[in-house]
Amino acid sequence: MSVPEGKPSDLLSSYDPGLYFDELFGSMDLPAEHTALIRQRLSGLDFDELRRRAQDVERELYNLGITFIVYSEKDAVDRILPFDIIPRVISSKEWAHLEAGVTQRVAALNLFLHDIYHDQKILKDGIIPRDLVEGNHNFRPQMIGLDVPFNTYIHIMGTDLVRDRQGVFRVLEDNGRVPSGVSYVVENRHMMQRVFPDLLQDIGIRPVDNYGHKLLDAMMEIAPQGVDDPQVALLSPGTYNSAYFEHIFLAREMGVPLVEGRDLVVENDRVYMKTTNGLAPLHSIYRRLDDAFLDPRAFNPDSLLGVPGILEAYRKGNVALANAIGTGVADDKAVYCYVPRMIKYYLDQDPIIPNVDTRICREPDALQYTLDHLSELVVKPVGEAGGYGITIGPRASKAELEDCRAKLLADPSNYISQPVVDLSVCPTVTEDGIEPRHVDLRPFAITGKSTWVLPGGLSRVALKKGTLIVNSSQGGGSKDTWVLEGAA
Amino acid sequence: MNLLARYAESIFWMARYMERAENLARILDVHESFSRDTRGATNWFSIVQLNADEKDFFSRHDRPTAEAVIHYYMFDAQNSNSLLSMLRIARENARALRPWISTEMWTQINVFHNKLLEMSVKDVATQNLSKVCTWIKEECQTHTGITEGTFYRDQGWYFYQMGKYIERADQTTRLLDIKYHTLLPSPADVGSTLDASQWTTVLRSTAGYHAFRRVYPRGMSPTTVAGFMLYNEGFPRSVVMCVRQIDGVLTRMRSRYEMRGGSNAMERVDELLAALLSRPIEAVLRDGLHQYLDWVQLQLSGITTEIAQAFFGVDAPLAVQSQSQ
């Protein structure tokens, strides 16, 4: 069934994004002219037809096993990441801005990591408090003085962006350890191409399917010098990891083995894979394992997932790791607040994409302000990921606010606070018709010698009405993200 | 390209469990006609005996009713010999292999497993058993076909075939054994109509009846049927045929990939093949088919152990292949 062109219908006519910036319609000040044709095509669709297509996608995702694993007390269940078939659209101009902003941010964070593991100028100059860096549990003294190829530490970066009421993109969070979600970007596009070819037709959307190729290039670039044909592998915690599908996806796209810790062995400070024909050398590892689990000899001794001795092989330069060890200090929620100053300090530039205004509760004034305005603010623990432990002031009950206050007072340096950002919305298929739902955006940047940003990124959508938390672990879904072709 | 030892092991077992599932479906399918007593009732207990599952079965069931036995062998997740358990293991292996096998192979196993998971013994009221078994058999054959048509032919393919043929040889010995183990022919029955129809069923369950007729147009005796299933050189489920395949696959793989390991496995396969080819069926039947089948099963399990030791890294890590660079 094809989309009738130009026939006005009711599908979007009663749609109301309310006070929020809308990704498909824009705002009064910033109307989204670039989405006119897409809106027109969507308007011509029948709601039942849209629902049917949406169901087709979900069945397909489940059958293909494009799933993540949710653990309950009793067992592990395969879940698909719910997928909404109305795309999120970014103009070529908006994208040029975002691409430059993400590239700038990656550059600053890599310079920062190099600095703190070498001369520590930024600490000596008092730009960032020393204890915030050295006292951070993700700071790795083992990295001090170690040189990494091209001074790149964060080879794969996921930058969480939100868009406020004015339509301004802001950085909410940096993910510089093992950011996930890129497989959904590529698979979502595949799904759209299958179920919605008539919507995509002649729009001119920048492709996303060369991500694996770009990643492999970077992995080869950072491999130890003098190896002719470096062996690359993806190191996964295994089939029970909730992101296992993504590990499979990336290993396949790169055409490299997916290995687990038990497949590897270190001898004479070199890393080998156990194969059917003995040990085979391994040179470059995209590891989807946190620092803490990487090497039981160096970090968590209880880890069964890691490879004993791999840190020493890495320090000797016999194996490359992406991301580098010790990047967690750069994507810490407290360090985040200093990134704009970092950009100024290292690059002498203003941030292209601003942060969300953030208060660091370790600072007495900020703590006081946070306590005084608790009901207006979002309070986040600095060490957690996945949307856990967050208190959203305006939506919290009295008891939740008091609980939050107690935690803040007990351990202020574990928290930051931010104003509630009114995340932009995007038309989304729901039980009750097309309704606005909040979205964020996570672009992915790959850096070897230089930085490349995947056009678009993962648009996560909070499917529950009114909720702002888009994480998959909290009932979020995703949308295909279209970056339109054209001169910026 | 190198094959991870863990992948080789997973491929081997994925193939075995899919083959095993197909054979169990075949056995369940023909069981009704297999084990009717003189009054025409089906003796479901014999299938429990066949698998030596009495202890486990009776720890959860009082009586071997049709429903209990069917549930036990189809849907009982606690029974590692149930179809659901086999599919679960095959799927777990396939899941670990997703970076290596074709998407189509994975998707088919995944969907097959999920469908089986949604079924219950109520869906298989006895009259539908045959239909469900046919479906399972066809899903297994679909797997075989998809694998043949999509699995990239590198080392993994060799391990797949080794797993499949070892399992198939083993299953053929078990199927033959049912006839003897559960229906020890009383002298009066030998040569009777009942006896002939049971031998026909054995052949039919392995899709070998028509081929057998072509080779032996007249008559059917325990000697000819057992000989056909053990030694026939053209029947794809005969033990000799399977062991020849194992022999060929192992030889070709070791030479193509210049593999140092596996000589012990090779030796054991050669020994088994030589032994199979040197005994006439009459002598086997005279000395006891059951003991002979047991011995063959033992040899197959020994070959598996040797393959695991040579290729799956169960020992200490093998010698360093080469220094890098």
TrEMBL record, chain B:
Q: Which residues form the DUF403 domain?
A: 3-312
Question: InterPro entries in the record, alphabetically?
Answer: ATP-dep_Glu-Cys_Ligase-2 (IPR051680), DUF403 (IPR007296)
Supply the Pfam families for this chain: Alpha-E
Q: What is this protein called?
A: Alpha-E domain-containing protein
